[in-house]
Write a structure and sequence with these properties.
Layout: H1 3-14, E1 25-27, E2 30-36, E3 41-47, E4 55-59, E5 64-65, E6 70-77, E7 87-91, E8 97-99, E9 104-106, E10 111-120, E11 126-136, E12 140-146, E13 154-161, E14 164-170, E15 177-185, E16 189-196, E17 202-210, E18 216-222, E19 229-234
Parallel strand pairs: 5-11
Antiparallel strand pairs: 1-2, 2-3, 4-6, 6-9, 7-8, 7-10, 10-11, 12-13, 12-19, 13-14, 14-15, 15-16, 16-17, 17-18, 18-19
């Protein structure tokens, strides 16, 4: 009998309860198989390979938005070794727990987290794998440029509070100040609406998506003369960790 066949038999029999006639003995990752035919009896000792948790990743990748980005965790490389099937328990790094092979989780705080999965086989042997998770917010001063218009580097001050945001725009043209509100949503979307309260009040909107660094926001602006039009906004850093929002 080939070594591959013996290993397959060992993994199968190791998952059976000991004490039955003809079952293998197993201690500390070693299984002993006794085979008896009409003419011979042979005993083979085979090691059970250790459990390997594999490698894990997240979708989406990149920096997430607190309260908005819902991460799905999954195996890039599957668990192996030991005696399958495996059970999976997760620690997301913020005190929350999960189970299963593809759990989802949203982070309520900003920070640098480490998500850890523990893969356990039917014999109780286990191994761990981890993946870093970076979460920030959209708070900060964004500079927006509207394509095809004279609006260049419009300063937009945004403060995030959970999924809600407040916004203030100090126009580089003659419109003065505007204030308003908006929201963030999964996976990395940001939308605001603000009203300029001059002699002739008017409202503007910015609706778009953030890139994987949370340093660029792009989409469509409406309400300005010559718009709807594409916009691109940037900021120098990805949120304020001290805000914890």
């Amino acid at each position: 009998m080939s070594v591959r066949s013996l290993l397959s038999i060992s993994l199968l029999l190791a998952s059976m309860s000991a004490g039955c006639t003809g079952s293998p003995t197993q201690t500390d990752g070693i299984v002993t198989i006794t085979q008896t035919t009409s003419t011979t009896t042979s005993t083979t000792t085979m090691p059970i390979p250790p459990v390997r948790a594999g490698a894990i990743g997240t979708a989406p990748g990149g920096v997430g938005v607190a309260w908005a980005t819902v991460y799905t965790f999954s195996f890039v490389t599957p668990a192996s070794g030991g005696v399958p099937p495996y059970t999976y328990t997760w620690e997301f790094g913020d005190g929350a727990m999960g189970a299963g092979s593809t759990p989802s989780h949203a982070y309520m705080n900003t920070g640098n987290f480490t998500a850890i999965v523990t893969a356990t086989d039917t014999m109780g042997m286990s191994d761990k794998a981890s993946v870093p998770v970076v979460v920030r917010n959209v708070t900060g001063t964004w500079r927006a440029t509207l394509a095809g218009t004279d609006f260049n580097r419009e300063p937009i001050d945004i403060v995030q509070n959970q999924t809600a945001v407040t916004a203030a725009i100090n126009s580089t043209n003659t419109f003065g100040l505007a204030s308003g509100a908006g929201n963030v949503s999964n996976p990395r979307s940001l939308a605001i609406s603000a009203t300029f309260m001059g002699a002739m009040p008017f409202a503007v909107t910015y609706v778009g998506r953030l890139d994987e660094t949370l340093l660029m926001w792009s989409g469509t602006a409406s309400g300005y003369p010559g718009c709807p039009c594409p916009f691109t906004a940037t900021r120098p850093s990805a949120g304020d960790l001290s805000l914890k929002r």
